[in-house]
Specification:
Keywords: Membrane, Transmembrane, Transmembrane helix. The protein is mainly alpha-helical. It has one domain. The chain has 8 helices and no strands. Helix 3 packs antiparallel against helix 4. The longest helix is centred in the last third of the chain and has 31 residues. The termini are far apart.
Length: 266
Amino acid sequence: MRTSSNPAFKNLPKGGGYANFNYGQPAGAFGTQGQAPTAPQQTGRPLSIDDIVTKTAITLAITIGTAAATYIIGGAASWGLVFPAAIVGFVLAMVNIFKKKVSPALVIAYAAVEGVFLGGVSHLFATMVNPGIIMQAIVGTMGVFAAMLVVYKTGAIRVTPKLTKWVIGAAAGAFTLMLVNLIAGFFVEGGIGIRSSDGGLLAIGFSLLCIGIAAFVFLLDFDEADRAIKSGVDARFSWYIAFSLMVTLVWLYLEILRLLSYLQND
């Protein structure tokens, strides 16, 4: 299975073994005779598209529910939840990524906490910019998701190893720039300018770049999910796939929200 830009997919079995996966065995590490290790016994039914749709719908519904509740609370109460929710969400994401066994409870907890974070951030943007910006960002996020799903299903853009490397490299570069900008912000007002509050050309361009990268990450995620289904991995891995899609959706929504705020300021 091709490596995804989304680290959550690292927990999907790879290589040989069960359903021709190797459960994390490095390529070529099949023993002295070059044979794949014996496949572990299947403990559940194979993964299906219904499993992925159902689990993704559950996590998305939980995120929307907690986000709406936080948004309705409003004021300093919701704004004050942004930073704690961001920290807890990051920790839960790391646990989900590096935990060896699938944990639906942790995925659900991540979805709930991210909802609180998004609800607080959304209320902050609605207050400081324009309430209508929230629905625009939601529609934009769903539109990009649907468009990339159509692009993937029609084969308009094929997910190749070369494309995968480019997307991973672009995503890594974008996050590195965000980190540099955050650190620079402690010493210079506005950091390096890619997250300028006044929405300069550099900030707008960077947000557009991030939206484009997030859109292509969806292609890689769809491809990983498709390969997992065809290879017959256990149905419980649908929770990992739902989690990884949520990570990309959250990033995309925040970037679209930020871009809209820049355009409103202009």
